Amino acid sequence: xxxxxxxxxxxxxxRTPRADAPAGLASAQAQEIGARLEPxxxxxxxxxxxxxxxxxxxxxxxxxxxxxxxxxxxxxHWAGFLARFPDVATLAAADGDEVLSxxxxxGYYRRARLLxxxxxxxxxELGARLPEDAAGLRRIPGIGPYTAGAIASIAYDRPEPLVxxxxxxxxxxxxxxxxxxxxxxxxxxxxxxxxxxxxxxxPRVLGQALMELGATVCTPRAPRCEACPLAASCRARxxxxxxxxPAVRERAASKxxxxxxxxxxxxxxxxxxxxxxxxxxxxxxxxPLLPRDDxxxxxxxxxxxxxxxxxVGGLRTVGEPVVHIFTxxxxxxxxxxxxxxxxxxxxxxxxxxxxxAPSQRPTGGVPTLTRKLLARVGGEGGDARxxxxxxxx
Length: 393
Known about the structure:
Elements: H1 10-13, H2 27-44, H3 56-65, H4 71-84, H5 88-93, H6 96-103, H7 110-125, H8 134-138, H9 145-156, H10 165-175, H11 180-183, H12 188-199, H13 203-216, H14 235-238, E1 255-266, E2 269-274, E3 285-286, E4 289-291, E5 308-309, E6 311-325, E7 329-340, E8 345-346, E9 353-356, H15 368-380, E10 390-392
Parallel strand pairs: 1-7
Antiparallel strand pairs: 1-2, 1-4, 2-3, 2-9, 5-8, 6-7, 6-10
């Protein structure tokens, strides 16, 4: 193992890395990287469920689930989803609500809808068989360049490149590329370099090896260079630049939205309604939501008029607001409970609503947010039973 070089002073680091990006990798360099990565991966890879199969459909499902979701979470859901929908034809024939229900707990439900739509195309137009090449795979709804490369390389052992944030970070450090635009996973040189590496050995192994290296060793902060099979040829390590490559990107502040989450209780049942077809939590079941102004500490009777017609009792807030984070948005939801009489009608005759007993769940997906809110209504934030008193809304 080579001795770790002394880091250069920070003042000079910004001038050390190359400002441009290479067109690709030299042939000998790609061969060397492949020769080091393949045995490393075979010896050190994590034993993940989807790595035990070559079924392109199962790999497709895993790749969609892994988008913006932790590996541990996917491990808890992948096998169950496949047990329910074991092949493309079964998924394509399934009802949309059934698919969303099976996806429950993974979040980002748009992925499930796109996976379902893609399965319908594969079943109807491709004989329920996924194409072997990335170009063919990209024609399927919901499959982009990275997912196409992952399926083609892992399932079919084809040298189709796959560049995500992990792969981009590994190769940017190997080449000490400083330009943030050239460190992005969409940069052409990264795709060219990845393809060269995959062609140097076994594609299905090398593609996964690049991803695994970025996920477990060449991490964004405090990379474990001493455990890296590419340490000897990593220019960023040689120049003491691993802490500034890739460049830290400023994230836009998440937009904050405040809501009243209204829990209408009738006997032992609670009202849920289906969200609109577009937008966050599209077609998912949730408590009725109403916008909440800054500074509002309790809802007024008039605030509930968009939700119900009739009289409700015991209107009050429960506990502290529930916070839920989306990719670029932050929701703060204050739970409000109220007792609904038999004459209370939910909003709009065409609204999809359902009264559920505590042990019941509606057909279709129940997102994590809904579970948080139901837990609060169930008493985690205090006694959620409505108090007496009628409020006309």
